[in-house]
Amino acid sequence: MKDTRSNPATKRIAAVEAARLIQDGMVVGVGTGSTLAFLIEELGRRVREEGLHVLGVPTSFQSRLACGRLGIPVRDMQDAAHLDLALDGADEVDPRLDLIKGGGGSQTREKIVAAMASEFVVVVDESKLVPALGTGFAIPVEIVPSGLAYVEAAVRELGGSPALRMATAGKDGPVVTDNGQFMLDVRFPPAHDLRAADRQLHQIPGVIETGLFFDLASQVVVGGGSAEGPTVRTLRRPA
């Protein structure tokens, strides 16, 4: 489910720029994904070389392990009720800074962390900017495994096309999230009202969370490229 068009150089420059938002003494939500791997690397450098004191709250086992390897102190999500800042990537970003997340299967924890934070900042390369959500990426929906057949049928009644996400390397069978659940990737027809669909999906018994993030991101740090080399810019939510 991950987008292979992304450029590591533009991801890195955006991640390094976003890491500058982290100040001494902060409790910071640390997201998941390839862009956040660069941010965690830069945060680890700042902890070692600048003596930065921070406490990270990772959204996945992957990010927690990365923080541990780089000497970033962490706190479990269940022990945190408020964060100063949360930083994460996205699979799609529209002009209002609404998002699709969950290509890595962590959107439930990521949404909790985003909601905890005084400010939620998204870090992407320019390939993730789209005119409308659902342009190229399906909507991840985390579900209880025992509800699979029922949830799939209910999603079809809403006009969606669900597909159970299957593991691609190192494991046979469905993807199992850090929460021990299954993932559906759901596509809706073009111009479908995704806000309404999100509300409807949340009403289906067995649905835990979706990868639609509305009205949560305050700004998006975007890595791009030009003839002069990598560039970075910051987008802010329209009034």
Description:
The chain is α/β, with parallel strands linked by helices. The protein folds into 2 domains: 8-129 and 214-236, Rossmann fold (3-Layer(aba) Sandwich); 139-210, 2-Layer Sandwich (Alpha-Beta Plaits). It is built from 6 helices and 13 strands.
Can you lay out the helices and strands and say which pair or pack?
Elements: H1 8-19, E1 27-30, H2 34-50, E2 55-58, H3 61-69, E3 85-88, E4 92-93, E5 99-100, H4 107-116, E6 120-125, E7 139-143, H5 148-157, E8 161-164, E9 182-187, H6 194-202, E10 207-210, E11 212-213, E12 219-226, E13 229-236
Parallel strand pairs: 1-2, 1-3, 3-6, 6-12
Antiparallel strand pairs: 4-5, 5-11, 7-9, 7-10, 8-9, 12-13
Mean pLDDT: 94
- SSE pattern: HEHEHEEEHEEHEEHEEEE
Q: Terminal Cα separation, in Å? A: 32 Å
The main pleated sheet reads as: 6 strands, mixed
Proportion of strand residues: 15-25%
Helix-strand makeup class:
alpha/beta
Overall, the morphology is globular
Number of domains: 2
CATH class assignment of the largest domain: Alpha Beta
Number of helices: 6
Strand order of the largest sheet: 2-1-3-6-12-13
Oligomer: single chain
Properties at a glance:
239 residues, alpha/beta, Rossmann fold, Alpha-Beta Plaits, 2 domains, 6-stranded mixed beta sheet, 13 strands, 28% helix
In summary, what is this structure?
The protein has 239 residues and is an alpha/beta fold. It has helices at 8-19, 34-50, 61-69, 107-116, 148-157, 194-202, and strands spanning 27-30, 55-58, 85-88, 92-93, 99-100, 120-125, 139-143, 161-164, 182-187, 207-210, 212-213, 219-226, 229-236.
